[in-house]
Amino acid sequence: MNIIGKKYWYFLLSLVIIVPGIISLILWGLNLSIDFTGGSKLTLAFNQKTDKTIVSKIDAILVSQKLKLYSVETSNNLAIVRTQDLTVAQDNKFVAAVASKGKGAKQVEVETVGPTIGSETTANAVKAIIIASLLIVLYITWSFRAVPKPASSFRFGVCAIIALIHDVLVLIGLFSILGHFFNIEVDSLFVTAVLTVIGFSVHDTIVVFDRIRENLKRIGGENFSLVVNESILQTLDRSLNTSMTVILVLVALLVFGGESIRWFVVALLIGMISGTYSSIFNASPLLVVWQELLSKRKKA
Amino acid sequence: MRKNPRLIFWLIIGLTILALFVNLPSFGNVNIKSFKIPVVNQTIGGTVELSPNAVFKFIGITKPLEFREGLDLKGGTSMTLRADMSKIPQSERSTALNSAKTVIERRVNLFGVSEPIVQTSVVNNQSRIIVELPSVNIDQARSIVGTTAQLSFWEEVASSSAKANPKDLVIIGDSYFRKTDLTGNDLSQTSVSFDQSTGKPQVQLQFTSNGASKFADITKRDVKKRLAIILDNQAIEAPVVNEPILNGQAVISGGFTVDSANALSTELNAGALPVPLTVLSEQSINPTLGSSYLTQSLFAGILGFVIIVFFMTILYGRLGIIASTALILYTLFVLSVFKLSSLTPYGVTLTLSGIAGFILSIGMAVDANILIFERMKEEKRLGRSQQMAIEMGFSRAWTSIRDSNVSTLITSFVLYEFGTGIVKGFALVLVIGVLISMFSAIVVTRTFLRLVYK
């Protein structure tokens, strides 16, 4: 099997997935939860199935109390109301009003995030992703320092990070699309998912890179693209088996893990699949592209 | 090490037994009174507590050994409060923050919340108090933290005059006290000092000029009577007035240790330096909802585990069974670390995201084994003997296991550093998982393999 030979096809497939995501990100951005924007999320339980009449009642109450409503979702006997960030008094007043109109309404969950906390969470998330990426490049550069010529450890590091950015873009892009069309929110659990995906992505890439390093030592770097292709094939079984195990576990979590971590698990699934793909079809082929560019320039 | 797999094997068995023991749930008092030995026909007995806690108590560790569950699994309320320091002088801000925290702790304890967390933090020059109250609903939590501390002084009155005019009275012990116009606002600061003649700790009160004149009036008419100090409707101290105090400098002495004097001073400061608290963020989870999350994720975890065992056995046959055994040990070890960590200040709190992290770390533990087994297959294909293949498989796979796990550790550390709440919990679980998975995949699996393929 010649993976390196078809590398541009694989890059194209990645682009096909990433580009719509990026367009969606530019057009609509992410559907950020109150974890980032600040606001309140109230879960109200009714003793009957919630329907449109309850939603419009909630709507009317909020309007009369001059509170900004973001969305109301219903599931079974629950209504999930997202509003501006409410003070204690506002919340009490609102819940009392709903309780008087909808029989037996009770507030079972409430989450309020002030704008300061929201912006801190955002800043910390961005900081964490950047710092983690930098440290990983440094580590790979250091760990692969003994890699034989013509390869360079720095290039390994950079390619691992490009694969990582690929996975993050796939994930964020798809969630931007999901957010726009299906109202799926990005919350702080999502940040955790992104960071886990980063960890796994690099984990996967390193396994392939490690094999390239080993084969370079043994065979030498005369035919770099052949060595890379060989290394990818040698690690293919492992990559697929590992991914399958993790994906099976995630599917179990998805089906039985309950509502509250559902989208977290979806994010991990997307990231896992993308991570496996990028370590096989992007990271290592990129090394070859870079190598070829350099040798062309030398000849010229 | 290579020559002695048997020794390591027994070490692993030992660790396993230890881990099993730590994970043993507390059975409480297992009563063996009714257990009769048939031959002697005599009741032996007494009550024996059969749990790791009892043993730990025996060796002097009294902290309970337990899985700490986060609020999302146990239900409860967490709040981040902003302490408004605009009216407090810069130099007294940390004292004021500490006092505000103490006041909340007092109220929490009065309410009877188990395992509460009350912490202070300063972020971007903003003082905060973080409160986590398990099994407390949002309304109760708001009433606990919602009001600013109120400090007031009450003078003792004769029971006859109390009955004549029963307004604004409290009864402490057998005595009646009436509210005075002296409040926390009149107190400028309190501190702990030491009596110059006896060297014993005492609490020093400094009143404002306005407060000093009120205090002078009170002490003039109340010599040899008691003056009760009440914080949030709770008497914290009722010292006797020895003599009129005119300069606004009072001292409460007698019977203090340094700690109790500090505690009193902190409580008084809460009244002297009242800090208005506003809610920055709050989250409340219904306990039934929390426990259903827990059941769901535990079920998913067990299912995930079974899937992995099944999958590994199909893929690798006998090797898969060995890996699965190592995986069971891995799970046991991780769970005991979680439990043991409750004895340290870095206790792992199990949250939903933490459980997700744990299940993921099982996947990573398996990955190390897959790496090794695939490598062994390759080495065998190259015509090496079984034993040689085992050794080569391990040594060749080691570099990729090391590098990939180190990069996961790097991410986890960064997450722990910058994350808040749930993210931190997730990261901690991942770190523990990765470290133990390296041990189980390499030491445990290798030892088993060496023994099986000898």
Characterization of the model:
The complex is a heterodimer of chains A (300) and B (454). With 300 residues, chain A is α+β, with helices and mostly antiparallel strands. Chain A folds into 2 domains: 214 residues, Multidrug efflux transporter AcrB transmembrane fold (Up-down Bundle), CATH 1.20.1640.10; 75 residues, ACT domain (Alpha-Beta Plaits). Helices cover 72% and strands 9% of the residues of chain A. Chain A contains 9 helices and 4 strands. Chain A has a 4-stranded antiparallel β-sheet with strand order 2-3-1-4. The two termini of chain A are 31 Å apart. The mean pLDDT of chain A is 84. In chain B, a hairpin with a 2-residue loop joins β14 and β15. By secondary structure, chain B is of the alpha+beta class. In chain B, 53% of the residues lie in helices and 21% in strands. In chain B, strands 10-11-9-14-15 form a 5-stranded antiparallel β-sheet. Among the domains of chain B are: 54 residues, no CATH class; 167 residues, Multidrug efflux transporter AcrB transmembrane domain (Multidrug efflux transporter AcrB transmembrane fold), CATH 1.20.1640. The longest helix of chain B is centred in the C-terminal third of the chain and has 33 residues. The interface between A and B is large, with 66 and 72 residues. β4 of chain A pairs antiparallel with β17 of chain B, so a sheet runs across the interface.
